[in-house]
Amino acid sequence: MMDNLNSRRFLKPLPLLSALSLFGMIALGDNAMIQNLQIQAAKGDAEAEFQLGRAYARGEGVPQDNAKAIQWYLKSANQGNAKAENNLASAYLAGSGVTRDADHAVAWYRKAAAQHAALAQFTLGQLAAHGVGLPKDNKVAASWYQQAAAQGYLQAEVELGKLYYFGADGLPQDKAAAIKWIKLAAAQGDTWSENTLGVIYETGSGLSRDPKQAAAFYEKAAMSGDAKAMANLGKLYAEGSGVEQSWPKAYAWLSISRVRGEFTAEKLMDADQTHFTPEVIEASKPIAAQYRAQIQASQSFPKS
């Protein structure tokens, strides 16, 4: 068995665990629904077994009980239910209701992936990329990501974009491939991809230089709360590149970015401090307030 289940922070909280939320929640105390699931599950209905396992895993309508969740997931998975296979794999990887076991996790992920479960395919890519349960191999990771991305799975598109954009051991940098996946992810509203497309258009690295396109992509990401994009957009306003030059707008974006911890914003503000007069700073305040309101509204109603 491959060691080090805690290897780095390769999955944030594992998106596989969030798969539990893909299906309707059972209200606490909804005895009728639980009883119906129990009846159908007792008859061997694979979907009911899965949903009952999920109910125990989340404590929806029943007391939370990971061990019982595993029992029902296993029954459902043994009948080939891909969702149960994926969640059982997740449990083995996290040690939730069972002893942590990367080999078992990989085996169940493979079963779900064979049924075109994009989440399982993506997760196998993550495991291969970080050498958890599988030998570390970026080519294998990319292959799994591509299977998930072919189904429109956003995070797989993002990971492919990063792999090809930066390059990795065993997988050379490929700007054309990176741009393909970054564009697809940006079209789904991923802020890293939007900001990176902005960088590509600003620098002309892989695409024809286009400051207006750069500004447009920076703004999309910035309005969704990406601090790097805010700093990059502030820089364009300071330069008048792709947008009409405006020191108040530049300061507004850089100040919001700095508050969010982006160190490049601080550097840019220091570099242009002679232009950021008290009058400019005062003029930037209502602009920054408007931007913050727009960002908050965007985050309250995420991109579809």
Helix and strand arrangement:
Blueprint: H1 15-18, H2 31-42, H3 46-58, H4 66-77, H5 82-94, H6 102-114, H7 118-130, H8 138-149, H9 154-166, H10 175-187, H11 191-203, H12 211-223, H13 227-239, H14 247-259, H15 263-271, H16 278-300
Helix pairs in contact: 2-3, 3-4, 4-5, 5-6, 6-7, 7-8, 8-9, 9-10, 10-11, 11-12, 12-13, 13-14, 14-15, 14-16
Observed structural traits:
304 residues; Serine Threonine Protein Phosphatase 5, Tetratricopeptide repeat; 2 domains; mainly alpha; 16 helices
Average pLDDT rating: 91
Unreliable spans are: 1-10, 12-25
- Regarding CATH, which class of the largest domain? Mainly Alpha
**Could you please say which CATH topology of the largest domain applies here?**
Serine Threonine Protein Phosphatase 5, Tetratricopeptide repeat
> What's the alpha carbon Rg, rounded to whole Å?
24 Å
| Alpha plus pi helix count | 16
